[in-house]
Amino acid sequence: xxxxxxxxxxxxxxxxxxxxxxxxxxxxxxxxxxxxxxxxxxxxxxxxxxxxxxxxxxxxxxxxxxxxxxxxxxxxxxxxxxxxxxxxxxxxxxxxxxxxxxxxxxxxxxxxxxxxxxxxxxxxxxxxxxxxxxxxxxxxxxxxxxxxxxxxxxxxxxxxxxxxxxxxxxxxxxxxxxxxxxxxxxxxxxxxxxxxxxxxxxxxxxxxxxxxxxxxxxxxxx
Length: 222
What we know:
The chain is an all-alpha fold. It is built from eleven helices and no strands.
């Protein structure tokens, strides 16, 4: 077997890990920002925009990413002028994974923030604690279980991303071919045994991540 036989696994893990790291900060920041918004209309609009990638077909997201970063767009042309092509690169796979997994982190974190006892937050404010310290020392510690759930779900979603990735990053072996796109390529080549092996790997990894999360949440309730 060739030396690149495991490359879809390494590409998937590296893409999902970086995407989850970015999603962790973006998801918490956006959830907290929406959590603090008092205007109902503004809150609804922001929530709809941040949740939209969760309900749109991944191929549509990939198409929009092509329009945004393609060579015909102002942003894509600017990147090309600096020698930084983005489409059909490893970074394109990371961006696609971020876009599809961000809503999961955002929705989970926001749901956790909304479920917090506001009396605790108000009590900290009456004691003269600043909003930044309240966020770090009151909100985050009390929301850690929900945030962990969001991290695991985001990672699992990024790990199995297919539609936006194949549209925006392509299916280049050793560079942008993830386990999901490798399954697609194997099926297209009538290699169902290889497709089955990669499908089993994805299922097992997702099962382990979710199992670890459930164990942590169970221990946290004790």
